[in-house]
Protein 1
Amino acid sequence: MTLEFSQSPAFTMGVELELQLLKSHDCNLARDAADLLARLGKVKHPGQVKPEITESMIELNSSIHQRYTTLADELRTVRSVVARQAELLNLRIAGGGSHPFHQWSERRIYPTERFKHLLNLYGYLAKQFTVFGQHIHIGCPNGDDAVYLIHMLSRHIPHFIALSASSPFYQGEDTSFASSRLNAISAFPLSGTMPLVESWDEFNAYFEKMHRYKIVESMKDFYWDIRPKPEYGTVEIRVCDTPLTVDKAALLAAFAQALAHYYLIERPLEATPDLYLVYNYNRFQACRFGFAANFINPYDQQHANLGDDLIATLKKLAPHAVALESSAALNQLLDETATRRNDSSWLREQLKKSGSLNDVARLQSNLWMGKPDRA
Amino acid sequence: MPELNFLPTLPPALTPPILFGLLLLVGLLGGEVARLFALPRITGYVLVGVLFGPGGLGVLTTQLIKESRVFVDISLGLILFELGRRLDYQWLRRNRWLFATAIAESAFAFCAVYFGLRYFDYPPLHAALAAAIGIATSPAVVLLVAHELRSEGQLTERMLLLTAVNSVFAFLSVTMLLPFLHLEQQAGWAETLPQPLYVMLGSLLTGLVSSFFVLRFAAWLGKHEDRQFIMLVGMIVFTAGLARSLNLSVLVTLLSVGILARNLDFRHKLMAVQFGHGGQLFFVILFVMAGAGLRFDALPQVAFIAGMYIVLRFLGKALAILVFGRFSGLRPGAAGLLSIALLPMSGLAIVMVQDASSLYPEFGTQLSAVVLSAVAILELIGPLATQFALKQAGEAGERR
């Protein structure tokens, strides 16, 4: 079985957002995904909305975009439609990488064949997988470029984690992590990174071997942080927590697009094994400490503050942002990084102010749905 | 022979603590036996009540039932408060079709029963009163069956919301009808109006004041679930007792505390406290006593009319939900199940019948037997209907 890498226009982008479905009266996770999806099936909206592994989640997919502004506009439109339909069912929708206080054992698997199979295979891990991520797709002209881009982006995984981190609470406790969600992913046997292959042919040889061993059926079985998506002709970045707003989701996509533009046009570096020697250290640091993490640069072996490294990266991307008409987006990320505050900081502040995780969940859903709130 | 007057007389007197403990134990037993037959526990509690009640072994005498009223009030208070909190005004405001469903569900049930009874030549006022009582679904049954099944979803939420709304409508209609009964007895407006007005406004005002204190208390306590729990139980029991002492309606008072505490809590100070195991204690007592209060003696004579009463009431509710439910976002197929879930009637109806009969004995002789027989039947099959509907809808939690 050989995987064909479909061609897609370079630097196009699309996002997938896994979202939380909350009950109005206590802001715990609800079980109404099927009812909400049925309603959304009857109203017109751009993009797609799909079920996810448990009945408390939905996944929102954007269409394919060349430019940041059209992506952001579309996401805001879908946000309004989804929020409106949810309200008719007395549900709330929230962003954020984890629900602050739900109990995984109360979750129910969404009844499709694939999800039932996952429950059979993974047991409680499947229910603990009720965490919420953003996936960003970047179009690549060919498989070799995709392989190269994946290696280059792996250096930036900590940036994406720190920028998107929004899962400080898990099962009713403060985890002390900026992103606790990625810990739930690491439990899966096929999580991790793509091996250090150098071309699409080499990747295919690897995939065929894994397929022959019957370890995987398709690309879907790899839960890697970044993986190629040959049927779309894209590279998919999967480490981001779903941000608290769709605006932030669009900003993250713009960052990924600018990075892809930089690496595929300038080809400044070659992939080295060192990328993956420091990988897990850097990834853990970013999950645990966010912008304050320690970051080891695999190309010069220097230690740096992750926030500083991100600012340097964003500045380096400026000319590419101009070409992609996303300077405003990258500047916004620069400003945010300068304050060293991300969504996790916001969530912790809300807990301090309100005193209960139910309130945190309510406030984070107000934020996502674009509703003003008293106190 | 020395005097042994320190020894008690035997058997020992059935004091309230002994009674409370015994009711709990036999109720529990009945509940577990019911589970063996895949029946809801509530049905088990009710059957224990029937067995030990005045109509059965007679252990629970009418006198004892009266003395246990305090337990019943506490349980009802907790349930009504909880149900009131599920009446989310914002949801009704956003979803107009749901609002229409709620109104129609009450109105159609009333009309169906009213015209049915008129067809059988019952006098208009009596028919209206019996129909008004039939509007209400039993708050205790739907809430506890939903709890027991750990049921969640659109059908469950709507069942609780509609029950809260139809309980309010039932009480309002009955209260508004009472003056007309008086009038029929040639009393003037001056004698007839004050009492229902007092009950209605007094209950609402008490509810308002109580909910105000609940929210102030909650704000002062902060977000501590354990302390808010104690405060809530305290306020609810106190308010239920106060309503009873002031000759107000425990139903309206506590329901309005729940509704107002939910909808006036703009600053989100009150937590979503679960009553949990503590609440369960009182609910066992509530249903055992409800079972003891059931009357089956008149059933043979009025069986047909009571049956018609149940069927018409169901058809009225079902029609409203079938017509309006779809527009309010209810998934196809759920409307029928929701109508079934709303079938239960219970103690609430008995209280309303008693109120009406005490003010107007003629109603007691004519229609109360019909309503009470219908309640007796629904008290037994109602929990089963609700359980069936929630399971069939796929909203019951996984078994543990």
Protein 2
Amino acid sequence: MTVLLQAEDLHQQYRLPRERLFGPRPLVQALDGVSFTLHKGRSLGLVGESGSGKSTLARLVMALEAPSEGRVVFDGQDLNALSPAALRRARAGFQMVFQDPYGSLDPRRRVLQTVAEPLAVLHGAGSAEQRERAAEVLDAVGLRASDLDKYPHEFSGGQRQRIAIARALVTRPQLIVADEPVSALDVSVQAQVLNLMQDLQDRFGVTYFFISHDLAVVDLVCDEVIVLQHGRIVEQGDPDTLFRRPQHPYTQRLLAAVPGAALATP
Amino acid sequence: MAELLAVQDLRVTLHTARGPADALRGVSFAMARGDTVGLIGESGCGKSITALALMGLLPEGAQVAGSIRFDGVELTTLPEAQLCQLRGNRIGMVFQEPMTALNPLHTVGHQIGESLRLHKGLSRAAARAEALRLLERVQLPQAAQRLDAYPHQLSGGQRQRVVIAIALACGPDLLIADEPTTALDVTLQREVLALIAELVREDGMGLLLISHDLGVMADTVQRMLVMYGGTVVESGPTAEVFRRLAHPYSRGLFAARPRLGLARGTRLATIAGRVPELADMPAGCPFAPRCGLAIDECRRAPVPPLVVTPGHEVRCLRWEAAAA
């Protein structure tokens, strides 16, 4: 198996605002030595509660900020050692899907502009090529080419998340970082989007870095899971073993909190 | 037991860009003090509109027909001034998003005391003392110091405790909780639900819990109503509803949820099609266009509630086929 993404001993500190006029600015340790390896075509799940460092880790993997210590190596390249121009080119290889499809799509732009924007920015693609590629990915996520000229408000929540996924796919990335991609969706719509993400993986061999607070979702989609608490990995393994026999008290607590444990399949 | 709340054939028509649309199409249910009832369904099914109708907080221009009787008083025709005396006093509400439900410019102590001063005529000092007692009751750590804190100084779970304290301030008879834990982490979700259940039990009030989460329902309420397209498609004791899943929509919802232990790569069962817009709701069963079992009769006229077992009703002509 080929290694696609490697996180090496990542630390990230943020400075908070001063508490007193002349006092020092307090530090918060958002990530405290996180390492993992993600292989091509696999899915890695990241679970943990608010404040555990999930989103910080996603931002580092996406090279939206640089770690205070450690390296993010994507496809053999240290992302933080690249020149800005080289980093921009490398970004075609990793794209992101955000949680809230109502907030992540610009309401004033047509679907075509939103979906094709990464192409224009990264490749300088012409408008005919943009339209063609955008139509291709819309088809892959189960929307129609005629939807390209519509605005986001004309779509339901699930369709909007499909548009967000189409935008992430348009550069033909190897890695998609999905930060809570289904938690804002209704149950039946959530099922459609999860199925779609899995189908896309089968079809295009995309690798997922999948962040979710929903253990059942991670269990379904991921080959491996990382449990993050206070910026540290407390447990790691394949979901079947990890969720069946959690070793760390924090994982045990997360599992015990899943509602509806009594609900069996009829 | 005396009825606390009786909703009879409640219909709400909203003004939309596409003209009037029926958001609720005949919702009926009743609950007594101490009852815990859940409303479950997806976006646009009418569960939040039901809650807003109960609180008299429907959007401008909404038309209401049918009846809502709260402790013998008809709410649909009650003048605003008298509704104000009920809201936050005898009917408390917990909202989904604690950050938007709280006023960022006032301390939490002030916000909890507000309804006490308004409804119970308490002095500033007495309201403050009572607010402290309430914060302790909702198990907010270091309640005395937190009284003067502003919402932004609290975490999400702490804020939701404050919102619950506000809802409980005047000792309501009915507590309406609209997705109270959706914005919270799972472990906090469990704590907050346990807290609400405990408070409801201690005070003997009625709880109307609104959620899209089947697991939360199974853990929290005695009776549940499954809503779709502005009607209650299935209702009954929670365990009974989950055991039978008599309505094809309840069944579809249940099958669509990811659950722990599914094999990697399993495709979830989905419900074909999507929820029709309010203005496009069909004349018959609202679920018929998406239902594999639908027959011509389903599309002709609204389906009346049919009895599955006493207390368990379903609006589906084909429920026996669905449950088979």
